[in-house]
Design goal:
This protein is an alpha+beta fold and 153 residues long. It has a single domain (3-149), classed as 3-Layer(aba) Sandwich (Aminopeptidase). It has helices at 13-30, 40-46, 88-97, 113-121; strands at 3-7, 53-59, 62-69, 74-79, 105-109, 124-133, 141-149. The chain has a four-stranded antiparallel β-sheet. Strand 2 (53-59) and strand 3 (62-69) form a beta hairpin. The two termini are 22 Å apart.
């Protein structure tokens, strides 16, 4: 399977909405926060998606995942659930972290052990825990694992 990582284009919008909405539900279910779900069309404003750099992963000319990041943080990483465990998330993280000589942080919801295991497998380590209001949906209290990449590949 050949994965192409490229910059986000406006034509990708509807597809990243689909991917986010499916994968975000999985993420929230793992943390027992199903009721906190907001579709990307709403979350985009609440969480200021476009302040981040965005890369998408394509396979067979279809967008199958995306990652957003800043100089020091990976903010969003979502893969179409039909494409889980096919190396897409790893390719997206490598495209960001592997090309940079700096430390990136990420937060993973407590209970989302699948994501926690994934980030550990790509070189991140838990540095702490934090609790507060869910960014973009402040009606919900959350606890997150804080992680940093320990050494870039």
């Amino acid at each position: 399977m050949h994965i192409i990582i490229r910059e986000y284009l406006k034509k990708d919008w509807s597809r990243i909405c689909e991917i986010h909405d499916l994968a975000r539900l999985d993420e929230l279910r793992s943390a027992y926060l199903d009721s906190a779900f907001l579709p990307l069309k709403i979350a985009v404003k609440n969480e200021d998606l476009f302040k981040y750099k965005i890369l998408v992963a394509e396979r067979n000319s279809e967008v199958v995942g995306f990652i957003t990041y800043s100089e020091e943080e990976i903010a969003w990483l979502y893969v179409d659930p039909a494409n889980y465990r096919n190396g897409i998330g790893k390719a997206l993280v490598k495209a960001v972290v592997g090309s940079q000589d700096r430390i990136f942080s990420i937060e993973v919801l407590k209970g989302n052990n699948t994501a926690l295991d994934f980030y550990r497998s790509v070189g991140f380590s838990v540095t702490g825990m934090a609790s507060g209001l869910m960014p973009g949906n402040e009606e919900y209290d959350v606890t997150v694992h804080e992680l940093n990449n320990t050494k870039n590949s």
